[in-house]
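User: Hi! Is it possible to get a structure for several chains at once, not just one? Here's what I have:
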Amino acid sequence: MPADATPNPTPTPEAGPTTGPTTGPTTGTTTGHAAAAAALAQVPSEPGAAKPDPIVIADNVKRSFGGLTAVDVEHVEIQRGVITALIGPNGAGKTTFFNLLTGFDQPDSGDWSFNGTSLRKKASHKVARLGMVRTFQLTKVLSKLTVLENMRLGATGQRGESFWAAPLKFLWGGQEDENTVRARELLARFKLDGKEKDFAGSLSGGQRKLLEMARALMVRPELVMLDEPMAGVNPALKQSLLGHVKSLREDGMTVLFVEHDMDMVRDISDWVIVMAQGKVIAEGTPDSIMADERVIDAYLGAHHDVDITEMEREIEQEHLEYGDPMGDSAHQPREEEK
Amino acid sequence: MDIISSALHDAFSPFALSFVLAAIGLNVHFGYTGLLNFGQAAFCAVGAYAMGVSVASFDLPLIVGIFFGLVASALLALVLGVPTLRLRADYLAIATIAAAEIARLVFSTSFKEYFNARDGVSGFTRGFRDINPLPDFNGQFLTFSRNDWWVMTVGWVLVALTCIFLWLLMRSPWGRVLRSIREDEEAVRSLGKNVYSYKMQALVLGGVIGAFGGFIGGLGLASVQPDSFNTDFTFIAFTMLILGGAARILGPVVGAVLFWGVLSGVGSTLARLSSGDNPIIPPDLMGSDQVSNVRFMLAGLALMLLMIYRPQGIFGDRKEIALDAR
Amino acid sequence: MHVPRLRVPLLVSLVVVLIGMLASPSLAATEEEQSNTVQGTLVNTAEDRAPVEGVEITVTSPDGEVFTDTSDDEGKFEIEVPGRGGRVMIELDTETLPDGVSLRNENKSSITRNLNPGQRAVILFPIGPDTRDIATKWDRIPQLVVNGLIFGIILALGALGLSMVFGTTGLTNFAHGELLTLGAMAAYMFNVAMGLPFVLAAVLSVVVGLAVGWAQDRGLWRPLRHRGTGLIAMMIVTIGLQFLLRNLFQYFTSGRTLNYDAYVTPSGVDVGLFSYTYRDAIMAGISAAVIIAVTLALSFTRFGRATRAVADNPALAASTGINVDRVVSGVWIVGTGLAALAGVFLGYTLGVTFNIGQFTLLLLFASVTVGGLGSVWGALIGSLIIGVLIEVSTLVIPAELKNAGALMLLIVILLVRPQGLLGRKERIG
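Assistant: Yes, the chains can be modeled jointly so their relative placement is included. Here is the combined structure:
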């Protein structure tokens, strides 16, 4: 633990995850936003600013690939109960930072904590069990499972997932029913209830994003980390997706998301962290970030002339990191991202 | 007629049974979990040898030998799994095929006082034959001896029980995690499941089922020989699995029966055509010892064509198998 | 989406060509090689290896027939045994030994041997005291290392092709060993059945390898890539192909071990610490030259750079205008040609047999994994390490287990450094 950190291991009342979100989408009520804004009002707009109630604190997290430094974050805190956006130009290290925080990649050095628990060298599944659940830039729904099975998979603490209990249905059948009820509620909330028997592979890109988000909620997370939730989503669906993201905050969850679209960031986020070349270069409220010259230089300026091959390289990089040997998939354009 | 009867004989024989069980084990590995185990022969061999040596060299009861066989195959799974299950799929394939070859070399050259080199282990079946409850008859009934019938009864009951057990497992949340790992490990990990542990459980389970194949094969042939567990053993079991349909409970069973049936039918048909006074196939083209090569050439071709045109096999659902995994 | 059709006709014609290639020698061979030969030379080490003449040798065939020959003035004997192999007993009549000459081991006047069909068995009856230097373990090391390096560099030809194909396509080719067998078989056909000089036969075999490399990419692998067949499915296809080819080779050779016409037991050159044969030196020299040439070509030619670009990132390579299909095709051609050359050489050292591929496949995997999958230099270093390890390990483990040592190293490498000695860490997932 760094000396200057202000750990707060006791969750605040509104962050209690156990009740779980069961209501319909509560789009755009201002109470959550107002409370969040109030909490962050006193925080200075500068990189590494201390927050009144941080859920995640990261220190000196470094990761390099070969000679290239992908991530070099000195200090960053994520406020509990608010929506924080992580933005930056392509290759800024946002996804790598995500991977590091969630244990999907190992840093060269650094330490970070969640609710005061150090996550350094913690396996990714343990991070998820602690209540820090992520989604992926290239959606990872299990296309050969039905939508409902995808949801059930997300539930934690399943007795039927132990080898010895698995053949004896009376040991886990009841729990499975409870999980199914919960899964159906979430599916209804995300407007996927008509699809529960469909294979997840048959869903559209936007529906997959919704399913992935709904499935993440089955884990009963405290912090939901969304990697480009809007990427590849049909514009008509974007507004409703935004509503869903906001509703997570209303339910007391903390949201950290990576996004490119500045309008969207301004619309839903309470706080914005800007990364460029692996470092946090600015932090602040959406309005202050929009007005920040450095951000406009580093990010907005670059954004308009992003090199296509650069983007492809980033996608490929992602695949290499996940151990994808150059397969036939690499020879063909992927439909879903287009 | 005898072509059909010999095909049926081969399809249900104790020999085929050992492949049925090996292929069921592979189905747990490859069909359900997506693990490429190319060393299933090692699991069968280790099981069979542990059983055989316990009884033949140490005079232990057969049941104790079987227990040691199961423990040995489970240990092999742990030893192989620890280094490779965190790596990409093809590393497991290479490590397991190497392990199978090491096992075969060790069994055929080392500890000769126990393993008897190439001759293998024998003299362990008495305890099993003594409890044969079948009515006494001499000679053969429907091409099988009384002892064969006993091995087959036990073997096929074992196959049925294994299939029921796997059916129960695979419909449970445990099976759901395996099928999800087969498709995308990262997604499963992001939901808080310990992927490594599940892969290890699958490797052990499939290996132990393979060891049962080794037991039945050993009891059926009354001996355990190193060369019957060469790499071809695993590849044939794979062909059966793909033929029947991976990720289907009955896929490997049907695949194995069909494979031996067809292989034997083709073999005896070719033998018939190429023998006698006026053979239809000239002996220059196919001597008696080449029949076996021709039928295995056809088996290889069949595996290629199946994989290309019908990777789901007879029963499988194309959408469901792991073949597009990377 | 347009799915290119599998070139079944092309595949069929490939198989037909293979059959045509192999049919002629095998038929010729079946007629003339319906017998075994037992031969040997009797020399007396007590008299500076002077030939021992007039000694009667009898061979009892599996059918119980007895054949006899008497050693000539060079000490040579040669006995033909009709039939197709089996267990024979070879006896030396000690009564016929000259006075004062005796077998080194009086009890070893008869030897039983299991003969393969068509085998020429060389039988040794040691006469006189043992004059061989009784080498200690450590004195044998230089010789074993040299033997290992020679085997390793031949292995490297095969490993290089395997590694290149993996590097560019991600495919682990379980049929790669059979491509080595193909080289040996082709050389046997050109050399023995068609009577061409061995050097020409070797060159033609490599040409056959290159052609088969092209044909298998165009006829099989490229259509599969374009169909979007997964890598695991393709890997299982290679297993089927391995099965098909190995049984095809066995079909034509009936499991015999054949030798090239030019085959003579080569004489050794002793350089003190170790000895080598000209044959081994030439094979190792050619292997090294070819490997260096291929490696330099990969570094400095346009095609080589394209190959490395595809290996790095196929999508990126394609987007910069590289024709990925052509590169992959080139890799299959070169890889199969290298494999054929390795096979030609192994046909010399191991004999031409259908299971050259089965014997070498796992050693190739071990080499490539130890060196680093996809790395060119790794394939070379890995092969040399595996070659030396196999030979030197015989100091401590029985010779039959020497391959197990190489495979153990493979598993250990996976345990401690899965990317191999020269592999890149990012690749392994």
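The two ends of chain A are 43 Å apart (CA to CA). Confidence is low (pLDDT under 50) at residues 1-30, 303-313, 315-338 of chain A.

User: Great, thank you!
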